[in-house]
Amino acid sequence: MDEGLKPKIKEIIVRSLRLEMPPSEISDDIPLFGEGLGLDSIDALELVLEIERAFGVAITDEHLGKSVLQSVNTIADFITARQQLK
Question: Is residue 65 very low, low, confident or very high in pLDDT (cuts 50, 70, 90)?
């Protein structure tokens, strides 16, 4: 896995959702929704669009049902797997 991938995902989360925290404060395995960062469905849509644009991957409803957006780790794993298929 690309070592710069997780920091880039964290930057995207902070920038696209306008969070008032530095990307470095987001743990790789903290839940993005609920008890973790407390993101909601609107945040999820914005995040999906930004991840698709930044990494050239498509995130379908089926992927979302499989908790692709659960944490930075799950997003990184998904991106890595999709890029290896290309």
Answer: confident
Tens digits of per-residue pLDDT, 34-54?
889 999 989 999 999 999 999
Tokens of 55: 């990494």
Total domain count for the chain?
1
Domain encompassing residue 26: 5-85
Counting beta carbons within 10 angstroms of the beta carbon of residue 33, is it exposed (0 to 12), middle (13 to 18) or buried (19 or more)? middle
d(Cα 55, Cα 83) in Å, to the nearest integer?
8
CATH number at residue 77: 1.10.1200.10
Provide the token pair at 61: 């409803």
pTM value surpassing 0.85? yes
